[in-house]
């Protein structure tokens, strides 16, 4: 990316959203809003808006324990069972 020429075409909230997705992609068990805020430095209200938008779009799921994690897709359809905290825990154990 050319710093001066392309800077005017950058969408800051999109960059922050990608940052959140990248972070959550590294943490199989998911993270709470406070943790995402601490790791990224993105304001909590912005983190909340980002993760809620990503949940609505099917990219993230929100577990019962308050964590947000990358949503698993089965047969190209969102599998809502992947949002259960038990499922998130199993995924973390399987990877570890």
TrEMBL record:
Coiled coil: none annotated. Residues 11-72 form the HTH iclR-type domain. One of its GO terms (biological process) is regulation of DNA-templated transcription. Pfam families: HTH_IclR. PROSITE patterns: HTH_ICLR. InterPro entries: Tscrpt_reg_IclR_N (IPR005471), WH-like_DNA-bd_sf (IPR036388), WH_DNA-bd_sf (IPR036390). This is HTH iclR-type domain-containing protein. It comes from Edaphobacter dinghuensis.
């Amino acid at each position: 990316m050319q710093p001066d020429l392309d800077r005017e075409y950058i969408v800051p909230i999109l960059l922050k959203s990608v940052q959140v997705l990248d972070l959550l992609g590294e943490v199989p068990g998911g993270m709470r809003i406070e943790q995402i805020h601490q790791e990224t430095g993105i304001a909590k209200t912005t983190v909340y808006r980002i993760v809620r938008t990503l949940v609505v779009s099917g990219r993230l799921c929100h577990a019962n324990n308050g964590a947000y994690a990358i949503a698993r897709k089965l047969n190209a359809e969102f599998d809502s069972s992947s949002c259960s905290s038990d499922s998130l825990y199993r995924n973390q154990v399987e990877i570890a």
